[in-house]
Amino acid sequence: MGKSDIEIAVLRHRKARIRELRHMQLLHDATISPPEEINYMERRIYMVATEGTIEAFNELVAQGRAVLTEITPQGNTILHLSAIYGHFRLLEHIINHEREVFENWDPIPNYYQSLLLRPNSNGDLPLHVAAAAGHAPAVIRLINYLNQLPRGMQIFLREGRQVEVGDVWVVQNNGGNTALHLALKANHQDVALRLAEVDPRVSFVPNEERASPLYMAAEAGDVLLVARMLISPVPRYEGKSVMHAAIKSKNIEILNLLLVPIRQNLINSRDEEKRSVLSYAASIGYDEGVERLLQEFSNIAYVKDPDGFFPIHSACRRGHMGALQAILQSCPDTIELLNLQGQNVLHVAAECGKNEVVKYILKNEKYANLINQKDHKGNTPLHLATMFWYPMIVHILTKDERVNVGEQNKLGFTALDAAEECMDLNPTFRERLTWMALVCVGTPRALKLMPYDSFLAPGPQEGIIQSNEMPSAKKYKDRVNTLLLLAILVATVAFSAAFSVTKVPEGETHWYKVFVVSVGFWSSACFLLVWANAIGPATSVTEKREERAGPRDTQAHELDS
């Protein structure tokens, strides 16, 4: 039988060169420079590791091949490869062969770097790659072998870092991931449970993305794994908020596990955007979570986020009615909360185009004081719905008699003024619909015809009037009536066409009529849509802007001509 790997090395080199060999072969030391020549794994060894043939491995050992020292271009040893492919029987033979080498050579424990502890170029130990691949039998055997190593033995990692074998479970690769992180990323629950039981500390170690295994398990909604991890006697909640992860998974069981009295400090945690737990739950529409949080900690309804929004605003911004109602039921006075712009919940809903929220607030008489309330810029909810071009919200608001359509903001604009000021010269269809919704209810304008420079810098009340005259309202109502008349005429033609169809084979008459009527209706709709765009407010907007330009700009234009 030929000599083993380390025996050959010892015979060929003096004791003074052992430190150099530590990096080249099994004696890995991160404190010295890497050798210029690297013994890449020969083909036969690579095939044995990937195929898991034990007989071929024994033949290589008998031939004195350096099965323990050679690596792949990614720094993987034969133990890495057997772990990646799940060949746990081969893995056992490799470790037993390495132990025989130990017995024959008897190296200094602190100098020897076992294959169990050798990282590849990504910083992964064999335990990491086995966990990532989800090979539970290989992981179980690696755990057993690692537990048998001397606790004080050093693990030499990249960049000169060293840890003791007792801390191997919290060793992180180049991406900051432990073996438990990798198992969770690949959704290998059985492997994750094994690793979480070995060392409770590993469940709270954050990676480079600031995600701990506990956070990842909560985000995945894994109740069993979260419950196992929380058994830790000394939990350290570092990295991303595990409470937000539980909210994200919308799992009430995990949320209940985190809301026990000993973990009450978690309720004050924030996510990456600095949002509170309740704000986040309200923003994603997790109604059950909102109710549960308010049962335990109703005061968090009054916690403001850095963007100035309270949880009730977050619910309105996303249009989540269940969350809104849950907050109002638990804390009814939150309806009075204003954000940094001085906006109430109706402002927020109107600005974000949430129809159902607007209807809900208008339906409740006790919220009537919100309807014409102004923000710091003097804008009412109608102003905001207009400026953000939500024609349906404008329609809902203007048909409510309590809405003052002539209310002016601090620039002296009514909603119609704001629409015409913000509208493009070639308005979009939404802009046209919004403008027409305002005109059809007789929304007044509040601006005099004044020089443009006066318009830019008016005095306290200069240039602003409350006009009750609507000279153009009748004109636009006539246009709407014309549209309706045309719609009726075209629809009538479409119907009459259905009753005067040409003769077709028996059995096909019904579907032919359906086809003709459908074509008629679609033709009507297309015609009216095109015509409505053609008579839109672009001309009116241009005229209004020319009127505001005043004589000075008119004279300047004549001089330029």
Q: Which keywords apply here?
A:
561 residues; mainly alpha; Serine Threonine Protein Phosphatase 5, Tetratricopeptide repeat; two-stranded antiparallel ribbon; 2 strands; disordered C terminus; transmembrane; Ankyrin_rpt; Ankyrin_rpt-contain_sf; ANK repeat
Brief summary:
The chain is an all-alpha fold.
Task: Describe the protein in words.
The protein is built from 28 helices and two strands. The protein has a two-stranded antiparallel ribbon. Helix content is 52%, strand content 1%. Among the domains are: 194 residues, Ankyrin repeat-containing domain (Serine Threonine Protein Phosphatase 5, Tetratricopeptide repeat, Alpha Horseshoe), CATH 1.25.40.20; 79 residues. With 561 residues, the protein is mostly helical.
Give the helices and strands, then pairings:
Elements: H1 5-12, H2 18-24, H3 43-51, H4 54-62, H5 78-84, H6 88-105, H7 126-133, H8 136-148, E1 154-156, E2 162-164, H9 179-185, H10 189-198, H11 213-219, H12 223-229, H13 242-249, H14 252-258, H15 277-283, H16 287-296, H17 311-318, H18 321-330, H19 345-352, H20 355-363, H21 381-387, H22 391-398, H23 415-422, H24 429-440, H25 452-456, H26 473-499, H27 509-534, H28 538-560
Antiparallel strand pairs: 1-2
InterPro entries: Ankyrin_rpt, Ankyrin_rpt-contain_sf
Pfam families: Ank_2
Biased composition (Basic and acidic residues): 542-561
